[in-house]
Amino acid sequence: MKIDAKVQSISKLKDYFFLVPDYQREYVWKPDDEVEQFLIDIENEYSPDAKEQRNYFLGSIIIANNDRCFDVVDGQQRLTTIMLSLCVFRDLLKKETLNSAQKNYLQIIENLLYNFDIESGETRVRLELQYEESHDYLTALIQEQPYNGVRSPSIVRMQDAYTKILRHFQLYAGIDELIDFAKYCLTKIELVVIESQDLSSALKIFETINQRGAGLNAMDLVKNLLFSNTKESDFAKIKDIWREIIQNLQECSEDQKPLRFLRYFLSARYYNGILREDDIYKWIISSEGKQATQYEKHPVDFAKEIRCMSKRYSELVNATELQRDGCLYPHVTNIGFINKYKSRQHLILLLSLGSNADVPAIEYLAKQIESFFFFSSTLRIQAKTNESLFVQWAEKLRNLTTIDEIACVIEKTMLPYLLDKVGVFKAEFITLSHGVYNPLYRLRYVLGKIENTVLEKLHSPVCGHQFYNDLQIEHILPQSPKNGSIPLEFLSEEEYYSYVYRLGNVTLIESMINQAVNNYNDLSTDQWFYDKQSEYGKSSVCLTKLLDSKFYIGVNTALNRFKNDFQYNFTGWNKSSVEARQKILLELVFDTWRINDLRLDRVK
């Protein structure tokens, strides 16, 4: 393997024509992040008044010889930003009246952007981007041609980077100051150019350097790892598959943070235990990782599996964040409500299922996870504890495809874990504050799910998220009693408010009705609750409507049987009423969030 490494100033890049192959990642540097840091780092090293400027090391690039040009294996983000900076220098200088020396600097900059290639007989740009998202934007910019093509995310980032650099360079007071800074950038900023005679060797260098701590994005490292183990005849397959992977992650807005997907993918399907992002690449190239994934022997198959799971991941992330009805995975959406819509831990379990698992199988597992998260959230179990459990359970769920198989694993894992906590759950729930389910969308979800359980008992249609999301939270004992007067049975304000915020004291209610009942907060007599009851009876929420003790439908109807069976009949409202309603909710909770369709409090 022949390798040539040279320290080169930017001015020496005139000796190369660079090509970023189409399998490489598009331009991703953001103007207020990496580009700004690029400018700050250079600015911090530049001293306008110094007699001798210090050299500044910008980093390294890895290139492979490819018939009169060089494929860029690593460093394309840095090189693209350098070219954008040179374009800015050129454009600013061209607006000025230059003397002969200044014109020489402009000529040097233009030669770094493009030049006549004697061998091909053509004028060529120094850096050509071949990946699809570039759409020849950089070539047009270098050649000072108007660009009216597609504005892909990559092009938008290049345009934003150009603008950021332009505004920064415009801070220099005059042409002399700008020329001095350009001279510094051309002669004192240095790169290590690592040159290999072929692509395979360059990819191996890239892998070795990053294996030893350069710390690049593990997702990019995996992509290059696949290319380095793939026959060149299969490069197009890997390129197309990888483009689909990135598109899948873009569809759930996670393409800028792909490590989370990669970590969950590996934890779900290969790694046994909790895999940290910093350890992803190290594990993949370990003997254990190679044996598990078989990427060396079957790189295309491994890439296809990543593609398949990235599609599932994208669909499930979007379902988690949906916060409304109409999804292919409604129980996944429910997980977003109970465990917060930015949560992702459940995906470890859902990604573990076989690649051909159908929607009903995925939804069945999601339903069990939804129930798990309700009990876990109520008991305030930490996320790190849940993740430890999930990676253990994922090992047992790997590649399962049927509901029966999934139910069997749930029976041996999740079910006994929760059964062990039933006693603690009951004790906690009896005095539970609704604040446990903050923010409010979680509380609406909990009360809405319980309401739907009641509606099912009444053989009535259940309601969706849109209905419950529009409702407000009513505190039956008011949060702001008139004149601060509280009933005598409460020994202190602290005790009063401990009951105000119990789950048994809140109910869902329509906005207009809530405005009306807010007026009934004079607790000096019992009339306040009777007035509230008359308004509650107008609600379309069953558990709220039934707070009106006079509300009945017919004789021996499902609704009346529910009232009698659950003793959901309140003629007044006090401490005992809150406690009684909380016990009713506890009974309904076990009916609502089941595991394998079993009530946890009745499993023998």
TrEMBL record:
Residues 438-587 form the GmrSD restriction endonucleases C-terminal domain. It comes from the Bacteria. InterPro entries: GmrSD_C, GmrSD_N. It holds the Pfam family GmrSD_C. Residues 14-227 form the GmrSD restriction endonucleases N-terminal domain. This is DUF262 domain-containing protein.
